[in-house]
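SAMPLE LOG
Freezer: B-3
Tube label: C17
Construct: single chain, 179 aa
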Amino acid sequence: MFYKTKISGTYLDPKSFHFVSSWYLHWANVNAWWFQSLHRNSMDIHQKDFAMHADRRFRFYRRYEELLGNKKRPFKFLLGLIYDLMLGYGYGITNCLVVTIGLIGLFAYLMAGYTSLPTGVGALEHIYFSIVSFTTVGYGEITPDKKYPVALVITSAFLFLSIVWTAIVSAVVVKRLVN
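STRUCTURE (predicted):
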């Protein structure tokens, strides 16, 4: 076993290591340590792509440790899985873009018929309203219909979500640019 190994000054591509599924279940801690060591080594020798992939694999095995380790934490595992899918382990700018477009589309779909727009307008107007709301510009020519309290609640929740999501995406972009 190579538990608690130390790697230094070596060009090792983390993509070249493949483990069978039993390693996920039984030796996730060994894998997490291995990829953390690979990450440190890659950062020391200024191999940013190697370091990014090693960090992703480290986080992957940490998820298995949280699910199957001594302290089984399924809630933390699910939060980590959502993080991985939505943000690509903190490196996925494309993931962030896809989720953002999905959020805008979902809001446009939910608000169809609940805005000051006349009935029968196209989806483009609802998408416009969603983008204006998401960016918190809020020009005011299209507003949620006050007859439907659910529209005000959805819009308020969407505005709060957009502020939080923008902060998260900004952190991902900065992390990616810094690395």
